Predict the structure.
Amino acid sequence: MSSPPGNVDSQPMTNSGFGRILVALYAIMAIGATARSVFAIATKFDLAPFAYTLSAVAAAVYIVATLTLARGDSGSRRIATACITFELVGVLVVGTLSLIDPDAFRKASVWSWFGLEYLLLPLALPILGLWWLRRSRPTR
Amino acid sequence: MTGAFATAVIAVALVMVVWALAYAALNRQLDHPLEIGVAVLEVLLLVFLVGGVVQMIQSPLPFPRWEVVAYLLGLVIIPPLGLAWASGEKSRSAMIVIAVACLMVPIMIVRVQQVWASV
């Protein structure tokens, strides 16, 4: 699954090998979260402004992570690292809060229950993402 | 939307998942038959999109129309996106990307059917 060791130097690495799959999974979450938040905000924002805003934030995070991981140059790596770190904190905080205080999250956001509605992908992705960013770091 | 055609689309998508995973296991590259398989799935999804919209327009029930359309459009764009993204890659990850893209089809069809049935 990892790419051949020959072309490591100066090659953008976040988007090949396992990264190819990771970007695909991020793209799916980007599409899902964007569609969900646009729909929710357009049709029923007043019902749960907080949860729906949160979904929109998650959507933005997924879009940025998808694009930066797909580009894979050094600037993109920095943005991806910051973005995915934020994503990890977000999903952990929101996931925990949704368990402690279900009333505040009666209308679900993407990150509620650690993203259970999305097969826990929202919990797995930032962990895999940060691992992959370390793993694919160019060796100088 | 919930009939035999949807079941057939799910079956074709699952065949594509197994096919792509088999290629990944055998370390085979993207070839013409696999591309045709994805194309067949895509044609079925386009029919599903048109059929779903027509069925919804003809029905007096208050479907959450935009939500249904969003799912149907998502279904149509995901397999070609997956194929395009996989075609730039020469490792077995490419086949897993195609498998993931095709696996999204049954998941999203089941979801849109739940939305459909909840009206």
